[in-house]
Amino acid sequence: MNPRAIVHVEIPFADREISKQFYKDLCGWNAYDVDDLPGGIYTTLSTANIGAALVEMNEQTQAGDVLVYIGSEDVASDLIQAEKLGGQILLAETLIQGLGTLGIFQDPSGNRIAFWKRAD
User: Is 74 helix (H, G, I), strand (E, B) or coil?
Assistant: First the structure.
């Protein structure tokens, strides 16, 4: 994985099946539901270049809240650097069992961005 490359994007949805069909028809992406993760069903999208997923809208994720994931070699250090540069840490380094490490921050403009380090 190339650190600092965009490696994953999450797109909020109001209706899972409509969104799955929309992106299939628009981009040719297939969708796969993963239901054995904490928090319920997670719908991944098969894209050619980066990881993508559909996430259910809720109080924390509204329409337009696309979450971009940036590759990281050290999530905790990258979060600290983001904070030093004027960002705000929203989710400290968190292990997602068997998948990798995640941290989310808000940039100075209010955008939510994630750092991601895939498990080896």
Answer: coil
Give the three-class secondary structure for 26.
helix
Interatomic CA distance for residues 6 and 53, integer angstroms: 14
16 close to 41: Cβ distance less than 8 angstroms: yes
pTM of this prediction exceeds 0.85: no
Residue among 67, 72, 25, 28 nearest 49 (CA): 28
Q: Length of the chain, please? A: 120
Q: Where are the beta strands (DSSP E) in 48-111?
A: 51-56, 67-71, 88-96, 100-106
How far, in Å, CA of 77 to CA of 117, rounded?
12
Could you tell me the mean pLDDT of each successive run of 10 residues in the chain, 120 residues long?
Answer: 79 90 88 84 86 88 89 93 93 93 91 90
Contacts for 78 with CB less than 8 Å, ≥ 6 apart: 70, 72, 103, 115
Report d(CA 9, CA 44) in Å as an integer: 10
* Residue 60 DSSP code: S
